[in-house]
Amino acid sequence: MKEKITPCLWFNGQAGDAAARYCAAFKRSRITAQSPIVTSVEIAGQSLTLLDGGPMYKPNASISFYVGCESAEEFDQAWKALSEGGTVVSAPAKTPWSEKYGWVTDPFNVSWQLGVQKTGDIKQKITPYLMFTGGQYGRADDAIKHYDTVFKSKSPEGVVRYGPEDAPEHPGYVRHAELELLNYKFMLSEVRSAAVPFTEGVSLTVHCENQAEVDYYWSKSQLYGSKLIQNA
To answer: Which domains are seen in the chain, by residue range?
Structure first.
């Protein structure tokens, strides 16, 4: 069954190169369609749309992609391909949540978080990670409520909140949460130290079956004055 939600990454003439890089990084990946403007990539059964839209926008770390790796070998293959010519945000190391974890921004400015997990714990291979910073810091709970209204989502899982020792001025803010929209999982967090705004560099396409569905999501997207829902 086709996914209802597909991440869309904005490029400036580099979509083909990025697609080749991602296919080298991840097993079970392939280019499924390619045109002068749009390249579609499938990674472990999940779709990504790579859009050559021009110089207006570029991806940033406000939305990164968490990849659950089944082994250190899989991690190393992906890390090597993504980090070459890119920028290391967090070098590979053991963490409380992963035997091996690292964060890297690839040469196309797309951010990836890689973690080695037990196979049974990987519910979704690639998970968009929304980071609420700057003017959006403190709005994750509002966002979760809004998405629940729009998509009739399941209750968020694994919600971890900052304590007084972590964020004395804002205890209770979301440190980590997982949300499922239309059977597609997302991760969310609020980070005070960063100031990275959400932009059109990474967007989320909702695949609609008919005009009524388009109209529904379009009307909901206007609640906050932004035209963020794309029709595919």
So the answer is: 5-231 (3.10.180.10)
